[in-house]
Amino acid sequence: MPDADDAFAALARSTVDGMLERRPELATLLGDHSHDGRLAIGTADYYDELARWCGDRLADVQRVDLDRLSAEYRVDAQILANELELCRFGPAELREHEWNPVLANPGRAIYLLLARDFAPLPDRLRSVAQRLAAVPEALAAARSVAAGQLPRVHLETALSQFAGTEHLIGTELDRVLAGASDGLLPGDLVPGDLAAGRAAALDAIAGHRRWLEQRLADGAHDAGPPDAGSPGGGFRDPRIGPELFARKLELTLESGGSPGELLARAQADLDEATAQITELAARLGVRTGDGRPDDRRPDGAGGGRGELVRQVLDSLAADAPDDATILGLVRRAYDAQLAFVREQAIVTVYDDPVDVIEMPEIDRGVAVAYCDPPGPLETAQMPTFVAVSPAPGDWTADRVRSFYREYNRHMVQNLMVHEAMPGHVLQLGHARRFSGGTPVRAAFWSGSFVEGWAVYAEELMAGHGYPGEGNPDAVRMQQLKMRLRMIINTILDVRVHCAGLPEAEAMALMTGRGFQEEGEAAGKWRRALLTSAQLSTYYVGYTEVSDLAARLREHRPQWSERQRHDELLAHGSPAARHLRSLLLT
Questions:
Q1: pTM strictly above 0.85
Q2: Average of pLDDT values for 117-121?
Q3: C-alpha of 548 from chain center
Q4: What is the spatial distance between Cα 37 and Cα 134, in angstroms, rounded to a whole number?
Q5: CB of 253 closer than 8 Å to CB of 536
Q6: What is the CB neighbour count within 10 angstroms for residue 14?
Q7: Which phi and psi (to 5°) does residue 423 adopt?
């Protein structure tokens, strides 16, 4: 077995190295800085070679005799095989590079070099200059592979995010340079060269945006009334279809089961979650501004008990932040949750640095908040960013109000449990401390495990009576509302891509059964079109993590809650099926 382990470890290291060489932006994200000066030039030949290489390496991994490997290495081999299949699926089957212009944006590849102090500024600026110089060729390659019509929603999102990249390369890079004296610039990098590279990159981005605008105008001319989810005459349908969705879902979740089975399970759980939030709303009733019970009760014509849930949620939504207070609220929520998790001994907390930041423009348009940890392959100690998106500047006052009613002070408390403590920030901090014999588990996370733990963390904190702004029932109401949203996300994901769910029906589901503000529902509709299989990771991951936690409690009844949760988080971020094999056999 040791010889087999050693042979597989060598294969795994060379395979991960080969993948990161072919995907330099991913290498930087993960914290491998061997390719920081490069961008992938996504020509047709590039994607064909990537698919062939993944297929060849997959065959190598599949020839490994799993029975001769130790348990840890057996899990790594299965994860590596799945990752190679997923990497090959993109260029060979889904062929997203041909129709998703969002993928071509170089903004994050440059942002990662500026945002984190993983190396001295002179070294990072040298890599920035090299990547800027590669932008014109990379964008020309992206245009060369664009085949046929493009989806309206992807074009609109790409235009918005490319505007953010222009701001990054212009204003934000100026800010970094203003803080660096001439002596801090790399000795072999003449300031004029950096300026020339930036000018060429900005010109290329401006030209690419004009191309995107023309594609949008041409599509709109032929498409008739705008509907992001309908191809019309001039746009590609963003839905990937049942066959591709089923395959992507299988590779993304690593849990088995068909989209139809997943949909049936989610619809049944939606009824259960609705009953839970209705029961809590009935117990709480509606409160007036001074906290006294309100005698209003639904008359039966407005939705019955569902109307009472809406009234309770509306009363909580009135306690809303705004652009001036949202970041401060998030920071205070994180500090309070950190203290609560320690006091309740829910799970071990590490003193890792965390910074709450305003979300970069290059990332806006998909999610309201995200956790951005240091790359798992990083060797330097750096903070985890919790990025929060303010209301976009071009929104109307009514839409901004709706946004902050959805993300009211109580919902923000629950959201930060998910994104930070004891959700993503804590879980990924534990994952970084896992030291395996191969880089596989560090490099390749299971999205369903990561999101599943964060949703499980919401339930944990509500169950422990986390008070948030002083009202644990308010936090519990928002946690149950988020559970409804999580389940509806899965229903949207499957029905949009497999059954052509129309926008009106999706909006009715989210604003009705999900009690969502219209602005939130509209954003989620766009996200369901922009992505596929990702929205299902929350629900599937939650069910798997909560089931595994219950089974571990039965398996190790003598352990404390903190011991059980520490053990769940001690093996990196593998899919739950791999974790079960490590913990319960």
A1: yes
A2: 92
A3: 23
A4: 9
A5: yes
A6: 12
A7: -85, -125
